[in-house]
TrEMBL record:
It comes from the Bacteria. It comes from Antrihabitans stalactiti. Its cofactor is pyridoxal 5'-phosphate. The lineage of its organism: Bacteria, Bacillati, Actinomycetota, Actinomycetes, Mycobacteriales. This is Pyridoxal phosphate homeostasis protein. Gene3D superfamilies: Alanine racemase.
């Protein structure tokens, strides 16, 4: 089977899965975005998914992503979402190519992104604000990144007080071995609390290939799907 047919079939299956999850949860499918995650896969796969109608893509490794973005040649703009951990010295590059970043977890990173986007504005590299989702740590493991639940309000204030950044919501990855339902339920509670102070922060980036149905049940507005669409990666 050609790669086109393979990706067309997996995209159909995944859209069906997402539609079924929305039906089961009594939610409107228009409220949950399918974000293909193309890390480890070539620019040609992005172009195939683009031809199949996808316009948003997620990448988690800055160097790979910035190289891939340069290789893509398609007529309409693609919205690139940075979903992986980011070192501050890569903020400038992300400010150049990313539509949104789902993995913001420290005030120092916020400051670096604010400065980076400002420079992009000054040099004509972008005109729209960078959308920011705070990545929440649900297990307090510092190695896996994420802001602690108690620190969300202060970090949210920092983002909304930074020019050129737009606070859009929360993101989380359930801790390894944890019950995803419990994780997504907790995340949904934290999101409800965030919305009280920041009513425009409506996005909840939750759910991957293995747990998207559960995430949709708990209010996800964006499922980040790699394996189910593109196949297994060499490493994770
Ligand atoms: C790779 C990745 C995904 C996609 O995971 P799959 O299980 O392959 O669907 C989602 N979110 C993040 C942050 C990732 O790094």
């Amino acid at each position: 089977m050609t790669r086109e047919l393979e990706l067309a079939a997996s995209l159909d299956r995944t859209r069906e899965r997402l539609a079924a999850a929305c039906r089961a949860a009594g939610r409107d499918p228009a409220d949950v975005m399918l974000l293909p995650v193309t890390k480890f896969f070539p620019a040609s796969d992005v172009e195939i998914l683009y031809r199949l109608g996808c316009r948003d893509f997620g990448e988690s490794r800055e160097q790979e992503a910035s190289a891939k973005v340069e290789q893509i040649d398609v007529p309409d703009p693609i919205r690139w979402h940075m979903i992986g951990r980011l070192q501050r010295n890569k903020a400038r590059s992300v400010a150049h190519w990313a539509y949104a970043i789902h993995s913001v977890d420290s005030a120092r990173l916020v400051a670096a992104l604010g400065t980076a986007v400002e420079r992009e504005f000054d040099e004509g590299g972008r005109r729209d604000p960078l959308r920011v989702l705070l990545q929440v740590s649900l297990d307090a493991d510092p190695d896996r990144g994420g802001v602690l639940p108690d620190d969300i309000p202060a970090l949210a204030e920092t983002v909304s007080g930074t020019a050129h950044l737009e606070l859009r919501g929360l993101m989380a990855i359930p801790p390894l071995g944890a019950d995803p339902a419990a994780s997504f339920e907790r995340l949904a509670q934290l999101h409800t609390e965030l919305l009280r102070a920041h009513p425009a922060a409506t996005e909840l980036s939750a759910g991957m290939s293995g747990d998207l149905e559960i995430a949709v049940e708990y209010g996800s507005t964006c499922v980040r799907v790699g394996t189910a669409l593109l196949g297994t990666r060499p490493i994770n």
